[in-house]
Amino acid sequence: MRVLVAGGAGFIGSHVCRTLIERGDSVVCLDNFITGRRANVEALLAHPAFELIEADVVEAPRVAADLVLHLASPASPVHYQQFPIETMQANSAGTHRLLAIAGESRARFVFASTSEVYGDPLEHPQRETYWGNVNPIGVRACYDESKRFGEALTVEYRRRHGVNASIVRIFNTYGPRMNINDGRVVPAFIAAALAGKPLPVFGDGMQTRSFCYVDDLVAALLLVAGDPSADGEVFNIGNPHEITMRELAQTIADCAGSHGALEMLPPAPDDPARRKPDISRMTARYGWTPRVGLRDGIARTVAYFADEAAARAAGVAS
Ligand code: NAD
Ligand code: UDP
Predict the structure, then answer these.
(1) Could you confirm whether 118 is annotated as catalytic?
(2) Cα of 139 to ligand 2 centre, how many Å?
(3) Which of 135, 153, 201, 315 makes a 20 to 30 Å CA pair with 87?
(4) 78 alpha carbon – ligand 2 mean position (Å)
């Protein structure tokens, strides 16, 4: 199978590209590196089945593919608030362009949406049937609303043009190849812990999230992507193990061997108070449940960032 992975040089995209290559597919990775890194796909560049196109998804060239995965969007709150217009373009005009490419190739299309479409949820845990509680003019709106628009465009394009398409709503995912500086809580806490600094907690730290290890996420995403009978359907993908940011800080401090002191900072505006996916749809359909527990996944991620820091230090020293 030939797969176009838009956003393939990002955190999740690079894991998707590697998994596809390992299972024998050919991959066209399209990325403009606005938040991704060439280093994330460096190891794949020499592979004959891997091709890298540096381009904005809004102006993506025509690519013949069997499957189009749209992962191209800034995803960390720091990044999408730094690039709000680019984020809205990627999820609106970018989604339109990729749907057209999928239509021309008769390819299947999967849109990477987000738990952010539920906003600060009034339903808990969140099921796919929940319509959400989003502030349309807040600091997160560029992301939340453009993902909601991308979903609407995907279902409408499918109805009008018959493109075989599904939507996955991804909940907080973490693991190796995240950008240590992207401001998301897992890299921020790990960076602080490895530097022996207090972990920066926004607000009272009692807000919750449910963290999914990247390997589990990729497995679920590829199950949906590989199932044309999921045409027109929406799936939550995440790990339902819900924890407070204080609990996350403690877990990361334990795994990094740090003292675990906290630096209490002002709350982030429009920060959802709690988030937990209902994954019964994925489980019923595919038998999928996450396999990697939080402590195990965090330990692997800490090890990755510690290796990266050591490599940087060695590079500076030489
Ligand atoms: P990331 O920032 O690491 O990766 C996004 C990639 O898309 C980057 O390589 C970036 O350079 C590229 N990109 C962005 N805009 C582009 C454009 N206009 N043209 C071409 N490339 C562009 O983020 P990630 O965590 O890997 O997220 C990947 C996808 O999954 C995003 O669509 C994101 O919204 C979605 N998602 C991620 C999470 C998560 O917890 N990681 C949660 C919900 C949804
Ligand atoms: N957070 C934090 N310290 C940080 C970064 C984030 O306490 O340095 C909190 C943030 O306020 C939110 C949670 O961690 O409640 C998850 O934030 P992240 O940016 O990772 O993702 P979000 O789910 O908000 O998109």
Answers:
(1) no
(2) 14
(3) 201
(4) 10
What secondary structure letter does DSSP report for 220? Answer: H
Q: Are 39 and 91 in contact (CB under 8 A)?
A: no
pTM value surpassing 0.90: yes
Q: How far apart are CA 265 and CA 251, in angstroms?
A: 19
DSSP string, 101-153: HHHHHT-EEEEEEEGGGGBS-SSSSBPTT---B--TTSTTHHHHHHHHHHHHH
Ligand 1 centroid to 259 CA: how many Å? Answer: 32
Our answer on whether the CB atom of 185 is closer than 6 Å to any ligand 2 atom is: yes
CA distances from 253 to 69, 180, 187, 194, 295 (A): 35, 16, 12, 9, 11
Q: Which residue's C-alpha comes closest to atom 14 of ligand 2?
A: 185
Q: Going residue by residue through the chain (318 aa), what tens digit of pLDDT does each one get? A: 999 999 999 999 999 999 999 999 999 999 999 999 999 999 999 999 999 999 999 999 999 999 999 999 999 999 999 999 999 999 999 999 999 999 999 999 999 999 999 999 999 999 999 999 999 999 999 999 999 999 999 999 999 999 999 999 999 999 999 999 999 999 999 999 999 999 999 999 999 999 999 999 999 999 999 999 999 999 999 999 999 999 999 999 999 999 889 999 999 999 999 999 999 999 999 999 999 999 999 999 999 999 998 888 888 766
The DSSP output letter for 138 is: S
Kindly name the residue from 80, 143, 174, 213 that is annotated as catalytic.
Answer: 143
User: Candidates 179, 202, 214: which one to mutate for ligand 2, based on the most atoms within 8 Å of Cβ?
Assistant: 202
